[in-house]
Amino acid sequence: MPDKDKFNLLTILESIEKISKYSMNFSNADMFYENQREFDAVMMNFIVIGEMASRLSENFININNHIEWTKIRNFRNIVAHNYFGIDAEEVWQIIKNKLPQLENELHKILKELD
To answer: Which pLDDT value is given to residue 1?
Structure first.
């Protein structure tokens, strides 16, 4: 794996950790959305995740095509270009259901490299 891909994966993992940290004290989407500082910080980290995903090499994406890279990149575009149309419940579901899966997959990939 090129160093660039590894750097991008580590940056994605760092953003996932930040999102987990920023959202951990909330029990639902409404409470989370009401705290604009944490909500905005999480949205920025979703942009970082999507940006880093778009910088992964085609070879890496082809080898790891079980990960929904297109959806990850598309969500970045939604957050960046339609911020005021973001559904807090959808974001909450991604945080609770999708990010842990992505985090596990990325750790597996990186572990295989060691």
So the answer is: 63
pLDDT exceeds 70 at position 22? yes
Which tens digit of pLDDT belongs to each residue from 80-91?
Answer: 887 667 889 999
Mean pLDDT of 26-48: 95
Query: Considering 37, 55, 73, 76, which one is annotated as catalytic?
Result: 76
Q: Which long-range contacts (CB under 8 A, 24 or more apart) does 53-59 make?
A: 53/8, 53/12, 55/4, 55/8, 56/5, 56/8, 56/9, 57/2, 57/4, 57/5
Whether residue 76 lies in the annotated active site: yes
Query: With 90 as the cut, is the pLDDT of residue 45 above it?
Result: yes
Alpha helices in the chain (DSSP H): 3-23, 29-34, 36-54, 58-63, 69-81, 88-93, 99-113
77, amino acid identity: N
